[in-house]
Amino acid sequence: MVIGPASAGERPAEPRFAVTIPTYNHGGRVAAVVRQTMSLGYPIFVVDDGSTDDTAARLRSISGVHLSVHPHNRGKGAALVTGLRAAAEVADYAVTIDADGQHDPVDALKLMAAIPANRRVIVVGRREMADAPWTSRQGRRFLNFWVRVSGGRKLADSQSGFRIYPLPEALDLGVVARRYQFEVEVLARAAWQGIPVVEATISAHYGSALPRISHFHPFVDCMRNFGAFSRLITRRVFTPALWSIGRKTK
Fold first, then answer.
1. Of 73, 135, 159, 203, which sits 20 to 30 A from 217 (CA to CA)?
2. 4 within some domain
3. Distance CA 79, CA 67 (A)
4. What is the pTM of this model?
């Protein structure tokens, strides 16, 4: 039997979602993040990126979670790729949530609501930063600028790890970076390939009540940022088809 296109009165299939949580030495927080995320009712894929604390043990005590463990630390981007590949087996979109407790997993519903009908997009959670450290606010402005120069669209929060990625499109962008730089490179390459990026406002928890866990190393990661943006900008400069990308992605 040949099945034709859906009639005007039929609703398109609802998109399938899964959640990916990369983690590295977040043993004191990741279990709570995972349990809160379970309230969404979606499959959860957690990737322990070679933690040296009790992260893996805490995660193994939670039933119903798909856990992958890297034998050694490979970087946040590598953990995201592992999680996205696993999520792509069961979902059309992957919600990514950081494991440090700064996000409210329920805000994923705000990200989902920002997906336009019949369009495949990346959704980035724009964090409210009123009580964020000065260094975080300045770092965000700095990277926003360089994402724009690399050809990505103008964004208010290019560093946010709370996102929705379309699958498998996000895995087919050719992103090279495998550490923190993955999340900014994916924005530039999405623009190059015509995948829209939209933002939705979310909350973020900072301050003394929740001391921040960061594995950012200022010198090393700044050099990696420099390398990543140099590579992206050079590619854009020598690819005429990319010269007008900035105007097209406003």
1. 203
2. no
3. 11
4. 0.86
Give tens-digit pLDDT for 72-98: 999 999 999 999 999 999 999 999 999
Domain count of the fold of the chain: 1
The 10s digit of each residue's pLDDT in 195-232 is 999 999 999 886 544 555 555 556 666 888 888 999 99
Q: Is residue 184 within 8 Å of 116, Cβ to Cβ? A: no
**CA nearest to 47, candidates 186, 161, 136, 143:** 161
Q: What is the C-alpha to C-alpha distance for residues 162 and 168, in angstroms, rounded to an integer?
A: 18
CATH code, domain with 30: 3.90.550.10
Q: What is the DSSP string of 144-197?
A: HHHHHHTTPPP-S-TT---EEEETTGGGGS-----STTHHHHHHHHHHHTT--E
The answer to the question of residue 9 being in a domain is no
